[in-house]
Amino acid sequence: MMKKSLAVLVLTVSALSINAQTSSDVLLTVExxxxxxxxxxxxxxxxxxxxxxxxxxxxxEYLDLFINFKLKVHEAKELNMHKNxxxxxxxxxxxxxxxxxxxxxxxxxxxxxxxxxxxxxxDVDASHILIRLHPNALPKDTLVVYDKMLGIREKIMSxxxxxxxxxxxxxxxxxxxxxxxxxxxxxxxxxxxxxETAAYNTPIGEVSKPVRTYYGYHLVKVNDKRPAxxxxxxxxxxxxxxxxxxxxxxxxxxxRIDEIYGLLEKGNSFESLAKQYSEDENxxxxxxxxxxxxxxxxxxxxxxxxxxxxKEGEYTKPFKTPLGWHIIKVxxxxxxxxxxxxxxxxxxxxxxxxxxxxxxxxxANRLKREYRVEEFLSERDDFYEKVDLSFFEAKWYKSVTKxxxxxxxxxxxxxxxxxxxxxxxxxxxxxDQSVKxxxxxxxxxxxxxxxxxxxxxxxxxxxxxKYPEFKALMNEYRDGILLFELNDKMVWSKSIIDTTGLRExxxxxxxxxxxDTRYDVRIYSCNSKKMAKxxxxxxxxxxxxxxxxxxxxxxxxxxxxxxxxKYEEDDNxxxxxxxxxxxxxxxxxxxxxxxxxxxxDTEEPRIKELPEARGQVMADxxxxxxxxxxxxxxxxxxxxxxxxxxESIKK
Length: 651
Hints:
Layout (H helix, E strand, L loop, with lengths): L25 E5 L2 E4 H13 L9 H20 L6 H15 L6 H14 L2 E11 L6 H20 L4 H8 L3 H4 L4 E5 L6 H9 L9 E3 L2 E12 L3 E10 L6 H19 L4 H8 L11 E5 L6 H9 L10 E3 L2 E11 L4 H14 L3 H15 L2 E3 L1 H5 L25 E5 L2 E4 H10 L11 H23 L1 H4 L1 H30 L1 H11 L4 E2 L2 E9 L2 H12 L4 H8 L7 E9 L4 H9 L6 E3 L2 E11 L2 E2 L2 H27 L2 E3 L1 H8 L1
Antiparallel strand pairs: 1-2, 1-20, 3-4, 3-6, 5-6, 7-8, 7-10, 9-10, 11-12, 12-13, 14-19, 15-16, 15-18, 17-18
Helix pairs in contact: 2-18, 3-18, 4-12, 4-13, 13-16, 18-23, 19-23, 20-21
């Protein structure tokens, strides 16, 4: 079945800008729906601009596709598919994604993006001391921890104690005590934002003032700063040997990696050896290619080895990690790209990072000024007597507030009553036992959060009204999801379920699905030309493949490998060579080493059975179903084109 993606639809909905004409003339009528020039030209121009993914078409061609689209959407509505709970759930999910840029402060976000780019120019090596504090801790408890951190810092700054001594005495990050608080090098987006800010703003050798994060208060000592190491494009050869593997497995892995390294030193291709011998199933077929990566993306042993390679094109000696043995080749060292080329990626990272809360807080404050907000704090204070200690054990029930029904605040005259706040409290009960069980500050803090959340939700509800481009996109997504669901029902899933129809289609078109001549072959892959010739000689005299491998792999586990399969001639260049001798090809150098092929049997050209051609038959059957369905829709529903309007927009 086709992968679910709106990108497969005729109408692509990825662009975020409107390129519409200004005419509201009716171009197309489908049943009782009138489609204006505005709507058609918006989608037409957008798709014409997507030259890399959408083939440019004439206006008539595109209008025909557009009619098909609208007929399908009309059919979906006639079937009440827009009332399906799954449809509405999916549409809500898409809307939430589209709404994100409208619910954060763009100016603040842009500053955060530019700041993150500047920070990515450097790596910071830091240590820290942590005193844990819940994010909703009361002010007086917060002050106690803050003062304690100031005292610790004063002892360090005065020389009374070293930073490392204070780590061992006071830090509550138990995982880092063994490293005496050392975190190693990191760059932007690798730590919580406030921690990152302290690390980048504190000079080398100094200790920051107490800095607050979700986990509590930290003191950050900056050990070093360096120009960013950047990213690496690298490949590796991997031989499995986990730290818990038995001695025989460990020895085997060590012998294999050493032998591979020896072949590298003799000038063998790294990529070829990775394809032949690497046990990383994901990268071996690609010559060991890992793509590009930066610091803190692999385990330290692997990362340190990779960054120790001085020049592009060089490789490491074999080294061990908890997973096994590796050799890394660095193909390219990537410096930081210019800001303009990175900003889109950075916007996404900022949105996913905790620093995005700064933009949300900023827009909530703006909305509070923009909309008419009236608060009734005495109604908030009613909750001081309704919330008790059970709230701090997640055992509080909102039913105790059933007598509270007054308005707690209004936004543009929309009333939010006490029961709404009670529900919010119920959903945000505290389970962290480290939080002090004091009601008033807790209620006040959650009230502020409820008001902020309500402001953002209110703005969210007005997006279609305030922003025409948002409304247009939502219409496209709605129609796109409907179209997908209907296509799935009428074409994609139907082609899977309708086995009788698929069989009939295959029988009517079976001459289109044929095998060329195929060959059952054994492929021998060897680590040297000399070894390949020995293997070929043994195979030619009739020795069993298992015997050949056993004999020739006595001194090297890499010497000879044999695999069997069925191929057409174009699938393997060695088959043509073997055909000439009717049995064995000559030894040839390939990217898999030195290889030769033995032809075991030959199968003459024939029509493929349905199971053999199922993928291709199903794709063709889906096209046939689509064609017939469109014909049915055009016969079922009326539609008309205003020729005069069409001619005017063509000009």
